[in-house]
Input
Amino acid sequence: MAPLQPEYGYEPEPAPSDGGVVRMLPGAGGPPPGAQQMPPAPRPVPPRDERRPRSVVRPSPPAPVSSKPHKVTPDSFNEAQQIADVFKRRQPVIVNLEAADRDLSRRLIDFASGVCYGLGGTMERVGGQVYLLTPTDVEVSDDDKRRLTQRGGS
Output
């Protein structure tokens, strides 16, 4: 196999050996062929004024949380957004799937567990087909959980 020949009579220039000088390619605009362009000199960093306070980013205080769980008895998957929206507001959600068919229950359980995982909350079964979604930093007392279990989330 023959070595590759440059097309149209162009031969690339050898790489500069002086470490830092940039050569422009012919026809690329800028300086004429053979001219050298030096990199810009680094700008000195001004000293930090220690009298000026440092900027600090502080998170805003969390929105008030309603400790009363929001109850949802979905009859279609369209209500999944409502579950997520309430949960994102850091309010516990009770999802009662007792009246839902098997496929809808599976889809909503998968969705709700993904929301809990993604937002760092927990999901637990408190009754037959009743689930409690609890956001991070929100606690539902054992007495409240017991009442939810007895009433089936209603």
Q: What stands out?
A: The chain has three helices and six strands. Residues 23 and 29 are 12 Å apart (CA to CA).
